Amino acid sequence: MTGGRHFGMDWLRIGAFALLILYHIGMYFVPWGWHVKIAEPIDWVTIPMLATNGWRLALLFLVSGYASAALFAKLGGSSAFARSRSARLLIPLLFAVVFIIPPQPWIDLAGQHGYPHGFLHFWLHDYFGSQFIDGIALPTWQHLWFVVYLWVYTMLAALLLALIPETARMRIADRVAAALGGWRLLVLPMLVWIAIYAAFPDHDETHALFDDGPSHLHYLTAFAIGWLLRVRPVLFEAVARCWKLAAVLALIGFAPIAWVEWTWPGDIRAPGWAILMYHLARQVQGWATIVALLGIADRWWNRDHPQRTMLAEAVFPFYIVHQTIIVVVGWYLLKADAAALPSFLILIATTTLGCWLFYRIGRNIGWLRPLIGLQGR
User: Fold this and answer.
1) 87 and 128 inside one domain
2) 142: left (phi over 0), alpha (psi -120 to 50) or beta
3) For 104, what's the count of Cα atoms within 13 Å in the CB-facing half-sphere?
4) CA–CA dist 173, 178 (Å, integer)
5) Residue 159 main-chain phi, psi, to 5 deg
6) Are 203 and 116 in the same domain?
């Protein structure tokens, strides 16, 4: 590490959020259900998107666990940590639910469910009605479910750290780090994910917090290991030992995922044995990819750059606003019957520009900073 900070983890966080934004642009083109879709979805786009499905969100929770542990060490106490995380996460969440997210469910309802009213009527009369309209919960946190889950996980961490004496915490961290040493870092979390799937094979993620228990187990595993990487950086030695094999395993693991999707595309139901193979491969490929990316970040990305601080600050405001931009622009592209390639290029350009303006304007206005996820001046 350099000066106690692992720059590679910063770059991994920046890259993970950039990939998430690109993924949501891809949702406009695939046949999977979403707020707004191109008139003629493209089946093959699902293949590269599935290459990220097994690890994309878990990686975000892992790097968030790492950053949370660093913040806890900086603040020096559970109460200060809980206050800091609550302010940084809940204030922009509330702001976004009220002002940023509403165009998404309106476009969904107007475009796919025949909702008869305009956006202003929807926002003033229906959005805050604590109701379901055609199965869509209102109001909603949409893509910001990640912020909700992260806040819950950090509050759980704060509670445990407040209840467990420091000496006991150190012993626990030492023992878990020893248990994950060497090749076990690659194997044991993968087995945990497989066990979670085996226990709840029919569970689909809901992002609704209270009925999403298996997903919490899955993401908490990544969050906890990210935290442990910060408090016991010796685990990066285990990463260095096995990341190359993990990269090979990730590539091999993706093969059955791609084959199943290619053979039974879209809504075509695959046979039971293929579904089982698909999900087992997904757990293997998912964790192996995370270990491989940790190894790459540790080996090649652990260096600073003049733009790193700015980019690390910008990713949260980008995340807050990006999906609304994609959905709104996609809505107008659909109305204009734009072809796939120009639609993709326009979505890339407008999302990048819109996110950048949201961040640059908000960061320079003191009272807006906490509303878009930035620290106050």
Assistant:
1) no
2) left
3) 27
4) 8
5) -65, -45
6) no
Residue 282: pLDDT band by 50, 70, 90 thresholds? very high
Tell which residue, 303, 352, 363, has the closest CA to residue 329: 352
Q: How many domains does the chain have?
A: 2
The proportion of the chain whose per-residue pLDDT surpasses 70, expressed as a percent, equals: 99
Please say whether the dihedral angle defined by the alpha carbons of residues 148, 282, 8 and 320, taken in this order, is positive or negative. Answer: negative
> What pLDDT is attached to residue 40?
95
Query: In terms of residue numbers, what domain contains 37?
Result: 7-101+141-372
Structure tokens at 356: 């950048």
Q: Is the domain of 232 the same as that of 184?
A: yes
Distance CA 63, CA 301 (A): 14
Tokens of 30: 């695939």
Is the pLDDT confidence value at 30 over 90? yes
Residue linked to tokens 């592209």: 333
Q: Region 28-48: what's the mean pLDDT?
A: 95
Helix boundaries (H) for the chain: 7-26, 46-53, 56-75, 78-95, 103-112, 119-121, 145-163, 166-179, 184-199, 213-231, 235-263, 272-300, 308-335, 340-363
| 313 within domain boundaries | yes
CB-CB contact of 257 with 54 (8 Å): yes
**Has residue 335 got a pLDDT over 80?**
yes
**Band (2; pLDDT cuts 50, 70, 90):** very low
Clarify whether residues 286 and 298 are in a common domain.
Answer: yes
Would you state the structure tokens that stand for residue 52, as one six-digit string? 């990220």
- Please report whether residue 2 resides in a domain: no
Quick one: average pLDDT of 108-136?
95
Q: Give the separation between CA 313 and CA 363, rounded to whole angstroms.
A: 10
**Cα 260–Cα 219–Cα 203 angle in degrees, nearest 5:** 50
Residues 225 and 174 in one domain: yes
